[in-house]
Amino acid sequence: MKRRYSGSASEFVELNDAKSWLNRPVNLIGVVTDTGLPKITKGTDVFCSVKIIDESRPKDGFFLHFFAQTIDNLPHVDTLGDVIVVSHAVVKAWELDAYAMYKKNVSSFALFRGRDISGKKQVVPYQKSSQYVDVHLDQNFIKTISRLKKWSIEHVVDGLNDLKPLKAIREDELCSLRCKILRICEVMEGEWMVYVWDGTDTPPVPIESKLENEIVDPLPLQLEDTPLSNNILRTFPCVGTVLRMFVHLGKDGMKLLKTNRWVKLINVKLQVRQALWCATLMPFSRFCHLNDDDESVIARQRCYEERVKSRWGSMPMTSFPWPSTITETDHPKVPFVTLMNALTYPPQMMVKYRCVVRVVAIFPCELKDFRTDAGMLRVRLTLEDPTARIHAFAAGEYGEKFFGGSDPLEMVTKRCNLLLGFEDGGCRKPPWIECCLLSYCADDGETGIYMIIDTRLNL
What we know:
The protein is built from six helices and 22 strands. It is mainly β and about 450 residues long. A hairpin with a 2-residue loop joins strand 7 and strand 8. It is elongated and about 85 Å long.
């Protein structure tokens, strides 16, 4: 079936009929569901693909392949559900299906917002190619695109409700996520780190590193070479994991990803590095930004808001119904906070916290080295929760209380083994424990120091 609007020589071919136009130019109109990352071809062009749907093909979708001289000349789709018009694209066979190839010298395109957020009834593209001829005064064209916009609002894109939350990810899998881009920064030339979040917690990771390596190769506190400043951390939510995602793309290509926007990410590789979750946007990954009023975004945001209102909202999701009883604090009625809360307090303030954490490393690793030459107990523990990883010290009278320093060595050893998650062979799986922390400022006036206080190991 074809659609024609008067006053123009153009005809729009419905996507389900495009295959019958092999090796011939067609004009297509559809709703965008996702786009691929821009790539440099073997020649001098850049390439990306855009997946679209319409009423005739609402699930499988149809791919448009774009070639252009620069990334700026490719379609920059703003939001899932936007409408794209392509003229004089050539249909090509692909396995048992077909796709449309956009030829930079003869084809043209225009992008229209799927929702009239301005409240205006005008049908005006927010991006168009240089060859595109405006037809927004053509009433039949306006009816066609308005009908498609209405359909896109009422139609739920296939698979959108199947996107995984961060709490359900698994190592070394390719999965699709719905999350919010909080920050983008370049870590080295051509490599970027994108900070994404969805309000849920990544699952705890078994610890493979040896404790004896802490002296020369300690577990890092973050994947970045340089820790983020407090000013940046304060822009992040304090509840829910902020996942680091690596992207290998040029600066122009990174313009397509926008901060403070929810995004659908398809075929993202989930990995664990140094016992920390991270993701990689693969060359074949796809994405599309989502509107804040998208139903799936509203549902995810609502879950987060309900969580932070709860008295137990700062507890790791996998610690329910309650953390391990191998520790006990002197302040059982104080509400829990996350380590991100602790990190974002001004270091000049002396503050006490109650947290649920895992002890993923300890230094020194031998009990005989826990005390200084002067006999004072001083141990550095690496604590983590789903939001952050920090170093905290168990020292002096607080350290004595925590470890039970006057107890028999065998008893202290057993407590430490439980704390660190030692099992019979294999990786360590530290339990979630509750503890109280004291933060205060180092001599430089800027660095925060954390100490375990008012907490004891049971057994």
